[in-house]
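User: Show me a protein chain along with its predicted structure.
Assistant: Here is one chain, sequence first, then structure tokens.
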Amino acid sequence: MNHSPFRRSLWIHCGVFLVWLLGIASSAGAAVARPNILWITVEDMSPQLGCYGDRTVPTPNVDRLAAEGVRFTRAFSTYGVCAPSRASLITGMYPTSIGAMHMRTMKRTAALDAITDPELLAIPVYEAVPPPQVKCFPEYLRAAGYYCSNNAKEDYQFIAPVTAWNESGSDAHWKNRPTPETPFFAVFNFEITHESRVFEQVSPQVVDPATVTVPPYYPDTELVRRDIARNYDNIAEMDRQVGELLKELEAEGLMEKTIIFFFSDHGSGLPRAKRWVYDSGIHVPLIIRFPGQREAGTTNGDLVSFVDFAPTMLSLLDLPIPDHLQGQAFLGARKATPRRYVFAFRDRMDPAAERIRAVRDQRFKYVRNYRPELPYLGFVPYRDRMELMQEILRLSSAGELGPDQWQFTAKRKPLEELYDTASDPHEIRNLAGDPVHFEKLAELREIHEAFHKRYGDLGELSETNLIRKLWPPAGIQPETLPPLLSVVESRGGVEVRLEPQTPGASLAWRTGTTNGWQLYHQPIQVEKGVEIRALAHRIGFKPSTEVVHVVE
């Protein structure tokens, strides 16, 4: 076993992580002051805010963040739906490279019990499995001394190891960190703008449906206007909730010690936005407020992708960025040259098969349809619960939709699409066949093909074969091997060391006196007689059994 490829791979990955940790220690030791970081994430929302020029509802709290911070105008999720996009955020990887692209790959037992539709029951259940060096990026912050809390949504297409967060759940809060001096990374997710909140009126009504703007890809009917107005009502309520969180931060004197991110997990939750690769589905608000209101009231037009968030977090804290991350830092000490392109994807949505890829530069969007024989609208029963969608389906069946709504009525898709987002922000005029734009079409086609060659695309595989690739050879989820535990005498007393047996596994430990599972990133100083528990978990595998040892 000592000379096997497995063992060599294990030590290679351990060595890479050790080098990274040494970089962490060096950077942390050199830092004078470490800012806190707060992520305020909302669901299913395009830049429908006053600070972005949309005055449909008042959004004073988010607008205040923009007035005191930097407003990004070209930030994009990788998918027009939550779970694959959240996989990008937490790993810094493209979902198509780690098997996280289909929506969705995991279902809770209770949800399965409630499903009777055979097409929904046939959806395969599995976890994405990134390469072994990939971690949930908060681990890097934890290793640098940050307290990392997530309130409360994960939804990463895999079960996060216990090492990802100090705490994750509805009670998670920066207030739970061990000391007031401990720097924190805290995530608060607001669900009020989610697609499902349009199914019925859940927020106070503040918008008159007669006053809303109806995008040209929708029919202008009373019901459509009502659901658009409901969506804006929820945005107004979201802003109020965000204001309450900001009051907490200010009350503790943390506003000028914290970098605040505000963004959505993807674009609008309404039909022809959510789940699509058009800007309506992937263009998100992104506002970043720095301590001291640095660059207050400015805008930034650089292209930003969700894969860039993890390296940017490390760059802002002057921590080393692991080579495997597929994104690039757009802020901080390791800021990269601004992007020329961002990439977006669409794959199976619930039971609806699909494979679409997109490339966008500052102005033009290229779309490649790998399943042109399929209509744009597949069978997505969750989406169809919205009355706005039912109205569209009814009008389509009656032949009453107009030419600008062709993406709802088309029975097949073109192989390629090209849109000028400056003159056609709703992306309804396909320019792929226009000779005037052949040069731009060829440029973005080549960029798409180069991206595919560089990163691969697991969407090419059937899900049966994908699962076998992720969990070889039979498609059965492997279990992470438990860590090896050793105890050595040191000058400071007794030292416990852990070593993974599964390449890429994160290691966790706890004693009776620790608050939850701790990330193992250096030898643990303990006293004799202490019981220590340890486990290992590689992303996409089952966690290991616990190792229990009493130090003697």
